[in-house]
Amino acid sequence: MSQLNWTSKWFQYQKQKMLWDESWILTGKDLPGDKFQNGLGSTISLKCNQNAQPGQRPEMFANTVFICGSSTENFIRTGIYDGRIVAVKRIHKKNFAISKTIRKEVQHVRTLDHPNICKFIGGSVEGDIFIITEYCPKGSLADVLFNDDVPLNWGFRLSFATDIARGMAYLHQHKIYHGRLISRNCVIDDRWVCKISDYGLTVYRRDEFKELMEKKPANIYCAPEVIQNDSSWVIPTAAADVYSYAIILVEIASRCSPFTGDTPIKDASWRPRIPDLSVSKADHDCPNQADYSELVKKCWAHNPMMRPSFEQIKKNLDRMNPHKVSPVDMMMNLMEKYSKHLETVVAERTQDLLQEKQKTDRLLYSMLPKPVADDLRQGLVCEAQSYANTTVYFSDIVGFTAISGASTPYQVVDFLNKLYTIFDDTIDNHDVYKVETIGDAYMVVSGVPKENGNNHVAEIASMALELVAVCHCFQIPHIPDRKLQIRVGIHSGPLVAGVVGTKMPRYCLFGDTVNTASRMESTSEGV
């Protein structure tokens, strides 16, 4: 019996010791301002506080981030405490004193530990009053839901709904009723687990309750019995939390805020519209649409006694979610799906790239010899090269000056383009290389850049005869009655070939062989 008495007294002593333990009380020294972070647990909109002058700290913490959205405004900070990032929430209190009631509240929340609630770390009681809790880097549930860039199938959504229900069931089990359960007080950690924040410490937060509930976005989460209560302070209840949870379920289903500009503020009968839970893509369908809608209606029942408990809500959600896959596994499956899709897209883009490269290569090889073009593309210097056995061909149009004078520029271009397109198709049948066309002059060489022994003479000669035959059959588009004739000059011998210039480089031929062939062309008769 004495042993039991001793054990009982020891537990009472430990309880009293924890009650008066003040290790949770933090000051500016515990969270130095220069270690404060700019990153925040919200991704809607971030703006740095620009009012503070350089080198000044008008408040205990200077690096304030102002989060503004379409429906709410909050001052939230993050800081470094004990080597880790923590979330810091400022409490707007005019006067504050540590009473025994507050000590009991703090003692209570310090003992709470659950994977779906944010762990309480500490707070301040002097100067800037703030509460420090576990930091969740993905931001609030509202930030994730309202961001269309974040893909969320119903596996994720039901996981979030279940996480909130588990966290709230744990809090209610420990006689803590939230009273401020909104989607912005549900935060997502780096493993995509949803956690409840801003819970407990009712007296500690008391002064901000009325201010919070008067804001339109927060007011839509209030149960009818809370709205109809004119008191400045309403004690939170389990049923009121369940009603707030129903509004969050609607947000999870619709992925948008139920608040609109014409939403009534003090209408106890108002309820948001339950969205259509079936969409075209089966992957995004709610697995049990009727049960989900029925659960929402039960949770926002006008009579508080008719609302289910969070333990009952958990069971309903477990029946609705047949997969019961963890968020991490769902994220891995999603990444695998995206990876396969990405592989398909990359393969398609690679094929498109290869096709475009082939087009570019064809264009490049039509302007420069392939070995020369490859060297230039690799950034190599293309040295001039001499060839001992070559044959050069020159030709021009007889009376081209007269034809040009009697034609418009467009007619001249059209005429030459059609003629030389036929020439280009003809020389493809011979081992020759087209050097260039300048005006009506057409220049071809054989034995360069690919040497072909003594075949260069026969290739150029047979090609020249075919080009003359083409001219006899060719009809000038705008002067069909005029007979087309060309002058031709051919000469064999050595020459030097190389690339000239870096912008629009040209493959040029130099030597007496080129000059002789040009003179023979200019002094020859038309054929």
From TrEMBL:
Enzyme Commission number, as recorded: 4.6.1.2
Gene3D superfamilies: Nucleotide cyclase (3.30.70.1230), Transferase(Phosphotransferase) domain 1 (1.10.510.10)
Compartments where located: Photoreceptor outer segment membrane
UniProt key word Transmembrane: yes
GO biological process terms, semicolon-separated: intracellular signal transduction; receptor guanylyl cyclase signaling pathway
SMART domains from the UniProt entry: CYCc (SM00044)
GO molecular function terms attached to this record: adenylate cyclase activity; ATP binding; guanylate cyclase activity; peptide receptor activity; protein kinase activity
PANTHER family associated with the record: GUANYLATE CYCLASE, GUANYLYL CYCLASE
UniProt record similarity statement: Belongs to the adenylyl cyclase class-4/guanylyl cyclase family.
UniProt protein name: Guanylate cyclase
The organism of origin for this protein: Hymenochirus boettgeri (Congo dwarf clawed frog)
